[in-house]
Write the C-alpha coordinates for this entry.
Amino acid sequence: MRVPAYLAELGRPDRRPILAGGVVSGYVVTLIFLALLILADAAGVIAAPGPLYGLVAAKLVTNTLAGLSLRLGRFVMLTASVNVAMDIVVMTAAIYFTGSTSSPLYAIYVVEIAVLAMLTNAGVTALAIAGGLVLYGMVVLGEILGWWPSYPPPAVLVTEDNRAAYMIVKYAFDTVVLATVAVFLIRNLARLEDREAKLRKQADDLVEAAREKSEFMANVTHELRTPIFGISGLCDLLEAGAAGSLSDKQRHFVGQIRRSGQNLLHLVDSLLQLAKAEAARVEFRPEPIDLREWIPQVVAGARWMVGTRDLRLVVDLPEGPMPTLHSDRGKLNHVLLNLLSNAIKVSPEGGTITLFVEPGDEGVVFSVKDEGPGIAPEDQRRVFESFEQGDGSDERPYGGLGIGLSLVRRLVAVMGGNVTVESEVGRGATFHVFVPFEAEPRVADPRDATWEAVVSPERLRKLRDTVRAGGGRPTAVRGSSADRPAPNAGQPGS
Protein backbone atom coordinates (compact mmCIF):
# COMPACT_ATOMS: atom_id res chain seq x y z
CA MET A 1 0.00 0.00 0.00
CA ARG A 2 1.43 3.34 -1.05
CA VAL A 3 1.28 6.07 1.59
CA PRO A 4 2.06 9.79 1.30
CA ALA A 5 5.68 10.76 1.86
CA TYR A 6 4.88 12.84 4.94
CA LEU A 7 3.32 9.76 6.58
CA ALA A 8 6.06 7.40 5.43
CA GLU A 9 8.53 9.75 7.08
CA LEU A 10 7.16 8.76 10.48
CA GLY A 11 8.51 5.23 10.03
CA ARG A 12 12.05 6.19 9.02
CA PRO A 13 14.75 4.95 11.43
CA ASP A 14 16.24 8.43 11.81
CA ARG A 15 12.86 9.73 13.02
CA ARG A 16 12.53 7.20 15.82
CA PRO A 17 14.27 9.25 18.52
CA ILE A 18 11.83 12.08 17.76
CA LEU A 19 8.89 9.67 17.88
CA ALA A 20 10.17 8.36 21.20
CA GLY A 21 10.13 11.94 22.48
CA GLY A 22 6.56 12.19 21.24
CA VAL A 23 5.59 9.10 23.23
CA VAL A 24 7.12 10.59 26.38
CA SER A 25 5.35 13.89 25.73
CA GLY A 26 2.11 11.96 25.19
CA TYR A 27 2.39 10.35 28.61
CA VAL A 28 3.20 13.66 30.32
CA VAL A 29 0.37 15.62 28.71
CA THR A 30 -2.17 12.80 29.16
CA LEU A 31 -1.34 12.32 32.84
CA ILE A 32 -1.55 16.07 33.45
CA PHE A 33 -5.00 16.17 31.88
CA LEU A 34 -5.97 13.08 33.89
CA ALA A 35 -5.03 14.96 37.07
CA LEU A 36 -7.08 17.96 35.96
CA LEU A 37 -10.00 15.65 35.14
CA ILE A 38 -9.86 14.15 38.62
CA LEU A 39 -9.86 17.63 40.18
CA ALA A 40 -12.74 18.80 37.99
CA ASP A 41 -14.71 15.63 38.75
CA ALA A 42 -14.13 16.12 42.46
CA ALA A 43 -15.35 19.72 42.12
CA GLY A 44 -18.50 18.52 40.39
CA VAL A 45 -18.10 20.65 37.26
CA ILE A 46 -18.05 17.73 34.76
CA ALA A 47 -21.45 16.47 33.58
CA ALA A 48 -20.17 13.17 32.12
CA PRO A 49 -16.84 12.22 33.71
CA GLY A 50 -17.13 8.52 32.80
CA PRO A 51 -16.59 8.90 29.03
CA LEU A 52 -13.70 11.27 29.70
CA TYR A 53 -11.92 8.69 31.88
CA GLY A 54 -12.45 6.19 29.08
CA LEU A 55 -10.91 8.57 26.55
CA VAL A 56 -7.84 9.09 28.74
CA ALA A 57 -7.47 5.31 29.08
CA ALA A 58 -7.74 4.88 25.28
CA LYS A 59 -5.02 7.49 24.75
CA LEU A 60 -2.74 5.75 27.25
CA VAL A 61 -3.27 2.46 25.38
CA THR A 62 -2.38 3.87 21.93
CA ASN A 63 0.58 5.74 23.40
CA THR A 64 1.85 2.54 24.99
CA LEU A 65 1.44 0.63 21.73
CA ALA A 66 3.41 3.34 19.92
CA GLY A 67 6.19 3.05 22.49
CA LEU A 68 6.30 -0.76 22.23
CA SER A 69 6.43 -0.67 18.42
CA LEU A 70 9.38 1.72 18.61
CA ARG A 71 11.17 -0.59 21.02
CA LEU A 72 10.50 -3.65 18.84
CA GLY A 73 11.04 -1.82 15.56
CA ARG A 74 7.80 -3.14 14.04
CA PHE A 75 4.63 -1.38 12.83
CA VAL A 76 6.17 1.96 13.76
CA MET A 77 4.36 3.99 11.11
CA LEU A 78 1.01 2.29 11.83
CA THR A 79 1.09 2.77 15.59
CA ALA A 80 2.39 6.33 15.28
CA SER A 81 -0.46 7.19 12.91
CA VAL A 82 -3.03 5.58 15.21
CA ASN A 83 -1.60 7.47 18.17
CA VAL A 84 -1.90 10.82 16.38
CA ALA A 85 -5.44 9.96 15.24
CA MET A 86 -6.37 9.03 18.80
CA ASP A 87 -5.17 12.46 19.95
CA ILE A 88 -7.69 14.12 17.63
CA VAL A 89 -10.50 11.76 18.63
CA VAL A 90 -9.86 12.18 22.36
CA MET A 91 -9.65 15.97 22.14
CA THR A 92 -12.81 16.28 20.04
CA ALA A 93 -14.75 13.91 22.30
CA ALA A 94 -13.54 15.79 25.39
CA ILE A 95 -14.79 19.03 23.87
CA TYR A 96 -18.15 17.40 23.11
CA PHE A 97 -18.64 16.06 26.65
CA THR A 98 -17.76 19.44 28.18
CA GLY A 99 -20.21 21.62 26.30
CA SER A 100 -19.29 21.37 22.61
CA THR A 101 -19.15 24.91 21.22
CA SER A 102 -19.28 26.29 24.78
CA SER A 103 -16.49 24.00 26.03
CA PRO A 104 -13.38 25.60 27.56
CA LEU A 105 -11.26 22.72 26.22
CA TYR A 106 -10.99 23.89 22.61
CA ALA A 107 -7.52 25.23 23.48
CA ILE A 108 -6.19 21.65 23.59
CA TYR A 109 -6.23 21.73 19.79
CA VAL A 110 -3.51 24.38 20.08
CA VAL A 111 -1.46 22.04 22.27
CA GLU A 112 -1.76 19.26 19.71
CA ILE A 113 -0.72 21.55 16.86
CA ALA A 114 2.34 22.75 18.79
CA VAL A 115 3.43 19.20 19.66
CA LEU A 116 2.92 17.86 16.14
CA ALA A 117 4.70 20.81 14.55
CA MET A 118 7.70 20.11 16.76
CA LEU A 119 7.81 16.33 16.48
CA THR A 120 6.51 15.51 12.99
CA ASN A 121 6.28 17.55 9.79
CA ALA A 122 4.04 20.04 8.02
CA GLY A 123 2.05 17.32 6.24
CA VAL A 124 1.16 15.43 9.41
CA THR A 125 0.35 18.67 11.24
CA ALA A 126 -1.92 19.88 8.44
CA LEU A 127 -3.63 16.48 8.29
CA ALA A 128 -4.26 16.56 12.04
CA ILE A 129 -5.72 20.07 11.83
CA ALA A 130 -8.00 19.00 8.99
CA GLY A 131 -9.08 15.91 10.94
CA GLY A 132 -9.85 17.98 14.01
CA LEU A 133 -11.94 20.43 12.02
CA VAL A 134 -13.91 17.59 10.41
CA LEU A 135 -14.62 15.82 13.71
CA TYR A 136 -15.48 19.06 15.48
CA GLY A 137 -17.79 19.97 12.61
CA MET A 138 -19.52 16.59 12.93
CA VAL A 139 -20.06 17.22 16.66
CA VAL A 140 -21.64 20.59 15.99
CA LEU A 141 -23.76 19.28 13.11
CA GLY A 142 -24.92 16.30 15.18
CA GLU A 143 -26.08 18.53 17.99
CA ILE A 144 -27.88 20.85 15.60
CA LEU A 145 -29.70 17.92 13.98
CA GLY A 146 -30.32 16.17 17.29
CA TRP A 147 -28.27 13.09 16.49
CA TRP A 148 -26.83 12.98 20.01
CA PRO A 149 -27.49 14.70 23.31
CA SER A 150 -25.88 17.93 24.43
CA TYR A 151 -23.82 18.30 27.59
CA PRO A 152 -23.50 21.48 29.63
CA PRO A 153 -20.13 23.22 29.92
CA PRO A 154 -18.39 23.25 33.32
CA ALA A 155 -19.25 26.91 33.90
CA VAL A 156 -22.97 26.04 34.01
CA LEU A 157 -22.34 23.58 36.85
CA VAL A 158 -20.54 26.12 39.02
CA THR A 159 -22.20 26.92 42.36
CA GLU A 160 -21.18 28.96 45.35
CA ASP A 161 -19.82 25.80 46.93
CA ASN A 162 -17.53 24.73 44.07
CA ARG A 163 -16.65 28.10 42.54
CA ALA A 164 -13.21 28.26 44.15
CA ALA A 165 -12.39 24.70 43.07
CA TYR A 166 -13.57 25.45 39.54
CA MET A 167 -11.42 28.57 39.34
CA ILE A 168 -8.37 26.63 40.53
CA VAL A 169 -8.96 23.89 37.93
CA LYS A 170 -9.55 26.48 35.22
CA TYR A 171 -6.36 28.32 36.12
CA ALA A 172 -4.40 25.06 36.16
CA PHE A 173 -5.80 24.08 32.76
CA ASP A 174 -4.94 27.44 31.21
CA THR A 175 -1.44 27.28 32.70
CA VAL A 176 -0.86 23.79 31.29
CA VAL A 177 -2.02 24.85 27.82
CA LEU A 178 0.15 27.97 27.76
CA ALA A 179 3.17 26.21 29.26
CA THR A 180 2.94 23.29 26.82
CA VAL A 181 2.67 25.57 23.81
CA ALA A 182 5.49 27.77 25.11
CA VAL A 183 7.83 24.83 25.76
CA PHE A 184 7.38 23.34 22.31
CA LEU A 185 7.57 26.69 20.54
CA ILE A 186 10.76 27.61 22.40
CA ARG A 187 12.27 24.23 21.51
CA ASN A 188 11.26 24.73 17.90
CA LEU A 189 12.77 28.22 17.78
CA ALA A 190 15.96 27.00 19.43
CA ARG A 191 16.25 24.21 16.88
CA LEU A 192 15.70 26.63 14.00
CA GLU A 193 18.26 29.08 15.40
CA ASP A 194 20.78 26.28 15.78
CA ARG A 195 20.17 25.13 12.22
CA GLU A 196 20.44 28.70 10.94
CA ALA A 197 23.74 29.17 12.77
CA LYS A 198 25.12 25.98 11.24
CA LEU A 199 23.99 27.01 7.75
CA ARG A 200 25.50 30.45 8.22
CA LYS A 201 28.80 28.91 9.28
CA GLN A 202 28.74 26.56 6.30
CA ALA A 203 28.07 29.49 3.98
CA ASP A 204 30.92 31.48 5.53
CA ASP A 205 33.23 28.48 5.18
CA LEU A 206 32.27 28.08 1.52
CA VAL A 207 32.88 31.77 0.84
CA GLU A 208 36.25 31.59 2.56
CA ALA A 209 37.17 28.41 0.68
CA ALA A 210 36.23 30.05 -2.62
CA ARG A 211 38.29 33.10 -1.75
CA GLU A 212 41.31 30.99 -0.81
CA LYS A 213 40.91 28.96 -3.99
CA SER A 214 40.80 32.10 -6.11
CA GLU A 215 43.84 33.57 -4.36
CA PHE A 216 45.72 30.29 -4.74
CA MET A 217 44.88 30.13 -8.45
CA ALA A 218 45.93 33.75 -8.89
CA ASN A 219 49.27 33.09 -7.18
CA VAL A 220 49.93 29.90 -9.13
CA THR A 221 49.08 31.42 -12.50
CA HIS A 222 51.23 34.44 -11.67
CA GLU A 223 54.20 32.17 -10.93
CA LEU A 224 53.62 30.24 -14.16
CA ARG A 225 54.34 33.37 -16.19
CA THR A 226 58.02 33.35 -15.17
CA PRO A 227 59.05 30.08 -16.90
CA ILE A 228 56.91 30.97 -19.92
CA PHE A 229 58.80 34.23 -20.34
CA GLY A 230 61.99 32.20 -19.98
CA ILE A 231 60.93 29.99 -22.91
CA SER A 232 60.15 33.06 -25.02
CA GLY A 233 63.51 34.58 -24.11
CA LEU A 234 65.37 31.42 -25.12
CA CYS A 235 63.50 31.46 -28.44
CA ASP A 236 64.69 35.04 -28.96
CA LEU A 237 68.28 34.00 -28.25
CA LEU A 238 68.10 31.06 -30.62
CA GLU A 239 66.65 33.20 -33.41
CA ALA A 240 69.34 35.82 -32.76
CA GLY A 241 72.06 33.20 -33.33
CA ALA A 242 73.24 32.81 -29.75
CA ALA A 243 73.68 29.07 -30.38
CA GLY A 244 74.83 29.44 -33.96
CA SER A 245 72.97 29.96 -37.19
CA LEU A 246 69.67 28.13 -37.61
CA SER A 247 68.44 26.27 -40.65
CA ASP A 248 64.98 27.01 -42.02
CA LYS A 249 63.66 23.84 -40.41
CA GLN A 250 65.16 24.79 -37.05
CA ARG A 251 63.68 28.29 -37.30
CA HIS A 252 60.29 26.68 -38.02
CA PHE A 253 60.58 24.57 -34.87
CA VAL A 254 61.65 27.57 -32.80
CA GLY A 255 58.62 29.45 -34.15
CA GLN A 256 56.37 26.57 -33.13
CA ILE A 257 57.88 26.64 -29.64
CA ARG A 258 57.29 30.40 -29.44
CA ARG A 259 53.66 30.06 -30.56
CA SER A 260 53.06 27.26 -28.04
CA GLY A 261 54.53 29.45 -25.32
CA GLN A 262 52.33 32.36 -26.38
CA ASN A 263 49.28 30.08 -26.33
CA LEU A 264 50.18 28.96 -22.83
CA LEU A 265 50.80 32.55 -21.73
CA HIS A 266 47.38 33.57 -23.06
CA LEU A 267 45.76 30.73 -21.12
CA VAL A 268 47.64 31.63 -17.94
CA ASP A 269 46.63 35.29 -18.32
CA SER A 270 43.00 34.23 -18.69
CA LEU A 271 43.21 32.09 -15.56
CA LEU A 272 44.83 34.97 -13.69
CA GLN A 273 42.11 37.41 -14.75
CA LEU A 274 39.39 34.89 -13.88
CA ALA A 275 40.91 34.28 -10.45
CA LYS A 276 40.98 38.02 -9.79
CA ALA A 277 37.40 38.33 -10.98
CA GLU A 278 36.21 35.56 -8.67
CA ALA A 279 38.10 37.16 -5.80
CA ALA A 280 36.30 40.47 -6.56
CA ARG A 281 39.60 42.27 -7.14
CA VAL A 282 39.07 43.46 -10.70
CA GLU A 283 39.79 47.19 -10.91
CA PHE A 284 38.37 49.30 -13.71
CA ARG A 285 40.94 51.82 -14.96
CA PRO A 286 39.61 53.82 -17.90
CA GLU A 287 41.85 55.76 -20.26
CA PRO A 288 41.37 57.39 -23.68
CA ILE A 289 41.56 54.85 -26.51
CA ASP A 290 42.07 55.87 -30.15
CA LEU A 291 40.13 53.08 -31.85
CA ARG A 292 41.66 53.55 -35.30
CA GLU A 293 45.13 53.22 -33.81
CA TRP A 294 44.35 50.58 -31.21
CA ILE A 295 42.30 48.05 -33.22
CA PRO A 296 45.19 47.11 -35.59
CA GLN A 297 47.36 46.48 -32.53
CA VAL A 298 44.77 44.07 -31.13
CA VAL A 299 44.48 42.22 -34.43
CA ALA A 300 48.27 42.02 -34.71
CA GLY A 301 48.34 40.46 -31.27
CA ALA A 302 45.88 37.82 -32.48
CA ARG A 303 47.62 36.95 -35.76
CA TRP A 304 50.18 34.71 -34.05
CA MET A 305 47.26 32.48 -32.98
CA VAL A 306 46.57 31.71 -36.63
CA GLY A 307 50.01 30.16 -37.03
CA THR A 308 50.31 28.18 -40.26
CA ARG A 309 46.57 27.69 -40.68
CA ASP A 310 44.80 28.92 -43.81
CA LEU A 311 42.62 31.57 -42.17
CA ARG A 312 41.85 35.20 -43.01
CA LEU A 313 41.65 37.76 -40.22
CA VAL A 314 39.67 40.78 -41.45
CA VAL A 315 38.96 44.11 -39.73
CA ASP A 316 35.90 46.14 -40.76
CA LEU A 317 36.27 49.75 -39.61
CA PRO A 318 33.88 52.57 -40.56
CA GLU A 319 35.05 55.35 -42.84
CA GLY A 320 35.96 58.76 -41.48
CA PRO A 321 37.04 59.84 -38.00
CA MET A 322 36.19 57.62 -35.04
CA PRO A 323 35.28 58.81 -31.54
CA THR A 324 37.57 58.30 -28.58
CA LEU A 325 36.58 55.51 -26.22
CA HIS A 326 37.21 55.99 -22.48
CA SER A 327 37.52 52.48 -21.07
CA ASP A 328 39.98 49.98 -19.63
CA ARG A 329 42.43 49.27 -22.46
CA GLY A 330 43.89 46.13 -20.88
CA LYS A 331 40.56 44.51 -20.13
CA LEU A 332 39.07 45.40 -23.50
CA ASN A 333 42.19 44.04 -25.18
CA HIS A 334 41.76 40.79 -23.24
CA VAL A 335 38.08 40.57 -24.21
CA LEU A 336 38.73 40.94 -27.93
CA LEU A 337 41.72 38.58 -27.89
CA ASN A 338 39.60 35.93 -26.19
CA LEU A 339 36.83 36.28 -28.76
CA LEU A 340 39.32 36.24 -31.66
CA SER A 341 41.08 33.23 -30.14
CA ASN A 342 37.78 31.36 -29.93
CA ALA A 343 36.93 32.26 -33.51
CA ILE A 344 40.33 31.05 -34.74
CA LYS A 345 39.94 27.75 -32.89
CA VAL A 346 36.54 26.88 -34.30
CA SER A 347 36.93 28.20 -37.86
CA PRO A 348 37.72 25.65 -40.60
CA GLU A 349 40.67 25.87 -42.98
CA GLY A 350 40.07 28.59 -45.57
CA GLY A 351 37.66 30.37 -43.24
CA THR A 352 37.42 34.07 -42.43
CA ILE A 353 37.24 35.74 -39.03
CA THR A 354 35.92 39.29 -39.11
CA LEU A 355 36.14 41.98 -36.44
CA PHE A 356 33.50 44.70 -36.88
CA VAL A 357 33.79 48.01 -35.02
CA GLU A 358 30.59 50.07 -35.00
CA PRO A 359 30.49 53.31 -32.97
CA GLY A 360 27.05 54.47 -31.86
CA ASP A 361 25.62 57.36 -29.86
CA GLU A 362 26.41 55.92 -26.44
CA GLY A 363 29.24 53.50 -27.06
CA VAL A 364 30.95 51.08 -29.40
CA VAL A 365 29.85 47.62 -30.49
CA PHE A 366 32.70 45.21 -31.23
CA SER A 367 31.53 42.14 -33.15
CA VAL A 368 33.62 39.03 -33.84
CA LYS A 369 32.21 36.76 -36.53
CA ASP A 370 33.50 33.27 -37.31
CA GLU A 371 32.63 30.50 -39.75
CA GLY A 372 32.73 27.68 -37.23
CA PRO A 373 30.15 25.01 -36.42
CA GLY A 374 27.88 27.42 -34.56
CA ILE A 375 26.18 26.85 -31.25
CA ALA A 376 23.05 24.82 -30.61
CA PRO A 377 20.26 26.74 -28.83
CA GLU A 378 20.39 24.37 -25.85
CA ASP A 379 24.10 25.13 -25.38
CA GLN A 380 23.87 28.91 -25.58
CA ARG A 381 22.82 29.37 -21.96
CA ARG A 382 25.75 27.65 -20.31
CA VAL A 383 28.90 28.48 -22.26
CA PHE A 384 29.39 31.83 -20.53
CA GLU A 385 29.81 29.90 -17.27
CA SER A 386 33.28 28.99 -16.04
CA PHE A 387 34.70 25.75 -17.46
CA GLU A 388 31.75 25.20 -19.79
CA GLN A 389 31.94 24.78 -23.57
CA GLY A 390 29.45 24.51 -26.39
CA ASP A 391 30.74 21.03 -27.16
CA GLY A 392 31.97 19.41 -24.00
CA SER A 393 32.69 16.01 -25.58
CA ASP A 394 36.16 14.53 -25.80
CA GLU A 395 35.77 14.34 -29.60
CA ARG A 396 35.48 18.10 -30.15
CA PRO A 397 38.04 19.33 -32.72
CA TYR A 398 39.23 22.28 -30.63
CA GLY A 399 40.76 22.46 -27.16
CA GLY A 400 40.38 24.84 -24.27
CA LEU A 401 39.20 24.84 -20.69
CA GLY A 402 36.05 26.89 -21.14
CA ILE A 403 37.20 29.96 -19.23
CA GLY A 404 37.49 32.51 -22.05
CA LEU A 405 33.82 33.42 -22.42
CA SER A 406 33.29 33.39 -18.67
CA LEU A 407 36.10 35.91 -18.38
CA VAL A 408 34.65 37.97 -21.25
CA ARG A 409 31.31 38.13 -19.47
CA ARG A 410 32.88 39.30 -16.22
CA LEU A 411 35.25 41.85 -17.73
CA VAL A 412 32.62 43.39 -20.00
CA ALA A 413 30.31 43.73 -17.00
CA VAL A 414 33.04 45.52 -15.04
CA MET A 415 33.39 47.97 -17.96
CA GLY A 416 29.65 48.72 -17.74
CA GLY A 417 28.81 46.94 -20.98
CA ASN A 418 27.19 43.71 -22.06
CA VAL A 419 27.77 40.86 -24.47
CA THR A 420 25.31 38.96 -26.67
CA VAL A 421 25.58 36.28 -29.32
CA GLU A 422 23.78 35.23 -32.45
CA SER A 423 24.37 31.80 -33.90
CA GLU A 424 22.92 28.98 -35.93
CA VAL A 425 24.29 25.46 -36.04
CA GLY A 426 26.45 25.07 -39.13
CA ARG A 427 26.55 28.82 -39.88
CA GLY A 428 29.07 30.15 -37.39
CA ALA A 429 28.56 32.59 -34.55
CA THR A 430 28.91 36.31 -33.96
CA PHE A 431 29.61 37.83 -30.57
CA HIS A 432 28.63 41.46 -29.95
CA VAL A 433 30.32 43.37 -27.13
CA PHE A 434 28.90 46.78 -26.24
CA VAL A 435 31.19 49.16 -24.31
CA PRO A 436 29.97 52.66 -23.33
CA PHE A 437 32.03 55.72 -24.32
CA GLU A 438 32.23 56.96 -20.73
CA ALA A 439 32.29 54.99 -17.50
CA GLU A 440 33.12 55.79 -13.90
CA PRO A 441 36.29 54.24 -12.43
CA ARG A 442 35.34 51.65 -9.88
CA VAL A 443 36.30 48.43 -8.18
CA ALA A 444 33.50 45.90 -8.46
CA ASP A 445 32.64 42.30 -8.02
CA PRO A 446 31.99 41.31 -11.63
CA ARG A 447 29.58 38.61 -10.56
CA ASP A 448 27.36 41.35 -9.21
CA ALA A 449 28.18 43.79 -11.97
CA THR A 450 26.96 41.36 -14.56
CA TRP A 451 23.50 41.74 -13.10
CA GLU A 452 23.72 45.36 -11.97
CA ALA A 453 25.13 47.01 -15.11
CA VAL A 454 22.22 49.27 -16.07
CA VAL A 455 21.46 49.62 -19.77
CA SER A 456 18.99 52.25 -20.90
CA PRO A 457 16.13 51.30 -23.24
CA GLU A 458 17.63 53.55 -25.94
CA ARG A 459 20.99 51.82 -25.71
CA LEU A 460 19.33 48.41 -25.80
CA ARG A 461 17.36 49.32 -28.93
CA LYS A 462 20.49 50.54 -30.68
CA LEU A 463 22.38 47.40 -29.74
CA ARG A 464 19.58 45.22 -31.07
CA ASP A 465 19.45 47.28 -34.28
CA THR A 466 23.18 46.79 -34.73
CA VAL A 467 22.83 43.03 -34.34
CA ARG A 468 19.90 42.82 -36.73
CA ALA A 469 21.66 45.03 -39.29
CA GLY A 470 24.23 42.29 -39.68
CA GLY A 471 21.48 39.86 -40.61
CA GLY A 472 21.38 38.21 -37.21
CA ARG A 473 18.96 37.82 -34.34
CA PRO A 474 19.85 38.57 -30.70
CA THR A 475 19.31 35.43 -28.67
CA ALA A 476 19.70 36.52 -25.08
CA VAL A 477 18.52 39.16 -22.66
CA ARG A 478 19.27 38.68 -19.00
CA GLY A 479 19.00 40.89 -15.95
CA SER A 480 16.65 42.19 -13.33
CA SER A 481 14.40 43.84 -15.92
CA ALA A 482 13.70 43.82 -19.63
CA ASP A 483 15.79 46.97 -20.02
CA ARG A 484 18.88 45.31 -18.59
CA PRO A 485 20.56 43.04 -21.12
CA ALA A 486 23.41 40.83 -20.14
CA PRO A 487 25.08 37.76 -21.62
CA ASN A 488 23.57 34.36 -21.33
CA ALA A 489 24.71 32.63 -24.44
CA GLY A 490 27.97 31.91 -26.16
CA GLN A 491 30.20 29.44 -27.91
CA PRO A 492 33.15 27.33 -26.82
CA GLY A 493 35.45 29.28 -24.59
CA SER A 494 39.22 29.20 -24.59
In short: The longest strand covers residues 352-359.
